[in-house]
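The aim of this short unit is practical: by the end, you should be able to scan a pair of folded records and say something sensible about each. We start with the first protein, listed as its amino acid sequence and then its structure tokens.
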Amino acid sequence: MARAPKSQRRAFGKGEVLMPPPPAPAEALSSCLDQLRSSWRREGSLAAIWQDWPNLAGAQLAPHCRPLNLQGGMLTVGASHPQWRQALLYSRPQLLAALRAAGHGIKDLRIQQHHGQAKVELDSEASIWARHPSRIDVHGMDHCPRCGRPSPAGEMALWGHCGFCRRSELAQVMPVATDMPMDDNTGAAQ
């Protein structure tokens, strides 16, 4: 019968108590990340290619082309424009060699046109506020044709009446959910 090492045994009365072994020392986060990256390469993960893509494709190609799929050693690369697709086709041998030299098990490349989602440029809060219909310093004041109250002219130009009349108009078209009878069991509107 095997006996536990002395570091795990503690005297307790007339016998001994077995203690769990001390935990392994903590590893640095950088070494954990390095292990993750190397396992990505060993397993042939698309994430590893994404990680290395700017260095593999180069500063000119990388922003316009991206790896899309990796299946059975076949890497599918998408280009954002026909000209970039043509550039990828010309540099295909160099890209394939760079992928293999970086430790990726790529057998072949498939290059295709890929129109990624365009980045939507959102207006800044300041530009939205600058043209907001309720700004009287921009649009001036007018009187609502429905209720006769003084109101921002931008609201009248947008809806044909003031914001208060617009709200009451919308309340008549779309009843508020709290006015609907509620189900006693679920608390949801019936």
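Turning to the second protein, read its sequence before its tokens, just as you did above.
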Amino acid sequence: MTDTALPLFGDDGRPGVPGVDESFATAHRVRLDEHSWVEHVPSWLTGADSLFDELLQGGAWEQRRRWMYGERTVEPRLTAQYDDLATAPALLLEAAQALTSHYGVTYDHLWVNLYRDNRDSTGWHGDGASTRRRECVVPVLSLGASRRFLIRPADGGPSSTFRPLAGDLIVMGGRCQSDWRHCVPKQTSPTGPRISVNFAASSQGRAD
């Protein structure tokens, strides 16, 4: 597959009160292969700026470490976790309910990543810890500055590029977590902070 980029859709200036588009009217699905797909839903959430500020100021942010290549390394981003959706901002509970209804997966917890500037990143990976089933649906909501989101086959090859804006939703479905890898790379040009909201389902964390 050749490297592609979706057009820049949506902004956070839509009229109306904060909320989500339960109709998913702007959804555009890209078929990666026979078993995997990515859906981009521009301007899915209204009120992205206020939600970004609420999470930035109220999140229990921590710098995590993980084992990589035989040693513990510091993750180049901050993370906060909401094991109970009741403790998350109300707008995220509304978002989880809309995603549950639309995709038929019960999203019952989430975690958020904070990319403080262009030097923060996430390397190539699949969400194996939270999605042990071969086929699953993983929604990621973008807030703040726009960053590239790349996805490529697990065994290597050209990547597809998405550029979600604040309030946009990126959804990985099918075998994306087992057959594909995704990342948010560092970039050379300065940028403001970005928060990604990763919706998770306990049912997808159990093997088939």
